[in-house]
């Protein structure tokens, strides 16, 4: 069932979120990704890495669709400076993996690849630790935002160049808890 636009008054503006990918669509696609990952890595020891904070809901749902006895999980934190709706490409590691990953198959789980600068930074950082392999799994890809080419091995959905929130993705740390993905637009409050 199509959901209505969610309208929230915040800081003197109206924030309007229109559903773009429903919870059902997300879960169906995650099931497919999990099956594909399970087949591709059969018999291997994989470390699934959640990139905090945006990938948390996706990570939690995806790992439960991966059938690999040799799967282990870790996480790291990244922050990119920039305005609230545009990434600057200046990335920094805010928390690191809990264990070394030399000789392991790394599967990095991201929420969205826009400019590609975050993933580029992360790949360069991870490569210095000499894992056996590195693959990227991103829930969303915005090709129109691309500034650098990064390899993406698993992509949930390719989307248009719009700012989206929900299912882990935030605007100023809000809306991460939505179970769907929606496009976000701002409107002025009506005059009194
Ligand atoms: P990139 O470095 O431009 O590829 O962007 C990566 C990060 O920017 C993501 O992990 C998100 O945190 C953030 N980001 C990019 N596009 C969006 C969006 O549409 N909504 C919310 N966050 C976004
Ligand atoms: Mg963010």
Descriptive overview:
The protein has 192 residues and is an alpha/beta fold. It has a single domain, classed as Rossmann fold (3-Layer(aba) Sandwich). 19% of the residues lie in helices and 39% in strands. It has three helices and ten strands. It has helices at 23-40, 56-63, 117-127, and strands at 6-10, 13-21, 46-52, 71-82, 87-95, 105-113, 133-141, 154-158, 164-165, 181-188. Strands 5-4-3-6-7-8 form a six-stranded mixed β-sheet, sandwiched between helices. A four-stranded antiparallel β-sheet has the order 1-2-10-9. The two termini are 34 Å apart. The mean pLDDT is 94. Bound molecules: inosinic acid and magnesium ion. Inosinic acid is lined by residues 54, 80, 87, 110-118, 163-165, 169. Inosinic acid binds next to strand 6, helix 3 and strand 9.
Relative strand content: 35-45%
Give the overall silhouette: globular
Class of secondary structure makeup? alpha/beta
Can you give the helix content as a percent range?
A: 10-25%
Strand line-up of the largest beta sheet? 5-4-3-6-7-8
Uncertain runs are none
What name does the CATH topology carry? Rossmann fold
Mean pLDDT: 94
Helical stretch tally: 3
Q: What ligands can be seen in this structure?
A: inosinic acid, magnesium ion
Total beta-strand segments: 10
Distance between the termini: 34 Å
Descriptive labels:
alpha/beta; 192 residues; binds magnesium ion; globular; Rossmann fold; 4-stranded antiparallel β-sheet
């Amino acid at each position: 069932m199509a959901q209505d636009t969610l309208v929230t008054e915040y800081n003197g503006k109206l924030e309007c979120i229109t559903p773009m990918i429903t919870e059902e669509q997300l879960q169906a696609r995650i099931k497919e990704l999990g099956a594909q990952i399970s087949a591709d890595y059969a018999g291997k020891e994989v470390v699934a890495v959640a990139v905090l904070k945006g990938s948390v809901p996706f990570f939690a749902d995806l790992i439960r669709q991966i059938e690999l006895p040799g799967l282990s999980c870790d996480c790291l934190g990244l922050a990119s400076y920039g305005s609230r709706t545009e990434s600057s490409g200046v990335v920094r590691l805010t928390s690191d993996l809990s264990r070394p990953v030399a000789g392991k198959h790394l599967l990095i789980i991201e929420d969205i690849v826009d400019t590609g600068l975050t993933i580029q930074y992360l790949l360069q950082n991870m490569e210095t630790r000499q894992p056996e392999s590195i693959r990227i799994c991103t829930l969303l890809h915005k090709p129109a935002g691309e500034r650098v080419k990064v390899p993406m091995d698993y992509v949930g959905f390719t989307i248009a160049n719009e700012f989206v929130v929900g299912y882990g993705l935030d605007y100023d740390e809000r809306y991460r808890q939505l179970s769907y993905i929606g496009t976000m637009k701002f409107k002025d409050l009506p005059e009194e």
